[in-house]
Amino acid sequence: MTKELLYLLPVIISLLLAQSIFLFIDARKNGHNYWFWGIWGLIQSPIPVIFYFLFARKVWRRQGKEREE
């Protein structure tokens, strides 16, 4: 391993761990498959967060429903 990669590794691990914890807690709070989102958040970034907000939380639909009411 190169010296630069060794410096980046803790940053990447921290990012993935923080993302995974956020997805796990938020999915659990909202009644989604929290184990799936937490494990997927550990594997890669930022695709799981984008998919979570688009498909699980349905962010774009909430704004439209609030305007209609």
Q: Outline, from the CA principal axes? A: elongated
Low-confidence stretches: none
Question: What is the terminal separation in angstroms?
Answer: 57 Å
Number of strands: 0
Q: Tell me, rounded to a whole number, the average pLDDT.
A: 84
* Helicity level: over 70%
**Overall structural domain count:** 1
Total helices: the number is: 4
What is the H/E order?
HHHH
Largest sheet geometry = none
Strand content: under 5%
| Rg value | 15 Å
Specify the structural class: mainly alpha
Sum up the structure in keywords.
69 residues; mainly alpha; 0% strand
Helices and strands, with pairings:
Blueprint: H1 3-30, H2 34-43, H3 47-56, H4 59-68
Helix pairs in contact: 1-2
Could you explain the architecture of this structure?
The protein is mainly alpha-helical. The chain has one domain (3-68). Helix content is 84%, strand content 0%. The chain has four helices and no strands. Helix 1 packs antiparallel against helix 2 (34-43). The N and C termini lie far apart (57 Å). The mean pLDDT is 84.
